[in-house]
Predict the structure.
Amino acid sequence: MTRYTPLPCAAAARVALGPQEIGAVVTPARRLRRHAPAGLIVGGDPARAVASLPPGCHSITYGRSGAGKTTAVAVPSLCATIASRERPHLLVVDVKETLWAQTAGWAAACGYRVRRIDLRSERTPDAYNPLDPAWRAWRRGDKKRCDELIAEITDVLERSVDDKSNAYWQKAASRLFQALFIGLCDTSDDQPTFAAIAEIAFGSADTQHMFINRARKSVANRLEQALNLHFSNINKTWNCILDVLDNMCAFYLGSVGLAVAGRSTFDPVESLLADEPCALYVTVPDDSVAANGYVSLLIDSVYRRYVHEFELRGLEERKSRPVMCFIDEAARLPRCGLTAIMAAGRSRRFYVHLFMQSYSQFLEEERYSKEEADVLVEQAEVAVYLSCTSDRVGRDLEQRSGGVLDASWTGTLKRGKAYVARAGYPVVRTELAPIARYLELGLFEQLPPPKLDAAHAEEKCAAARGLGA
């Protein structure tokens, strides 16, 4: 894994005069509407020219609430990327629904196939079951890979549990979940769901015995071990395990979770590998830890299958359409495959732009260990610093600047002002125009989002069920 190294003093020990000195591409305003480069906008005046970084750069944008992460960085960059000649596929995680409202209509107008998984509503236009990759591994006979994938899923589920006081119960609940998933794969051709797993776990001992009897011997032995506490009438211990499992699966058993994860109405990986550009929006409630867990599972499962298909189809040798992820409030997500994506995604043309308020959010509720958070931050080739009072973010800027800038400087920035650091280049101080300025000049259009509804999803559901065959 490539580790971030402090910038050499020869390159970093000064503040650059403009974005061009960090490799930014300058696009005249008259060409921005149809010939903008796909990438993160890092400066310029929309009335004259705009500077943006090449699309192959992972980035992290820091800024307190109201500093302009969304209005001055994410939305303009998304609009320019949508209008670019490359027209990459987009995976957009949107916490405040601002990105959906301000860019989805523009994406549809520019020829994108727009999809939306709405974690706020049981009328979600599209749905995806994140157990899909593990099920596919089982179907193709790769039992080892299936076990690895389902273990990674339960790891994310554990991190989405509110009560982390007893790790023993969490591990026991994870083993139960894994065994029941394997049992469902072995006894049915249908794709397992969270609801089906919970139905067996909370069922009677007689129902569970009948389930075991349908499984092959090796799978039946695993099921008996996982369900032994129930069969042995050790009720207190068994109830503790079920309480944790209920907490892990709570979102997926509610009305929204059943609609979002109870079936797959489309294959997101096929959408992100298609010739037609696709923009997949995932809108997330602002206060749901469990919904954040679903987003982590979605990102993880999509990326792993994307890599598998990318290599299977030999896309390294062909110029495939890249994938760009814009993830709002990224530090709230339970740990998923972001580190792996940022370490290896460039070679698969899979790029990530993270937006967050501060480094400390990674460490809240034990979502990441300090070491894991450090590795994730170090994988970002580009860091954009808007107004922020986090000491750790300030120290990161100081390190990336080779000591030229003090850690306190991020707290003095006014709205729209920013420092941009790119590995191997000096730091640049820049100004970022809000999306309102681009709209005022007619460079982009804020169009109503396309009307996608549950009926649209149901029309696709029957075809999607056969995707894993």
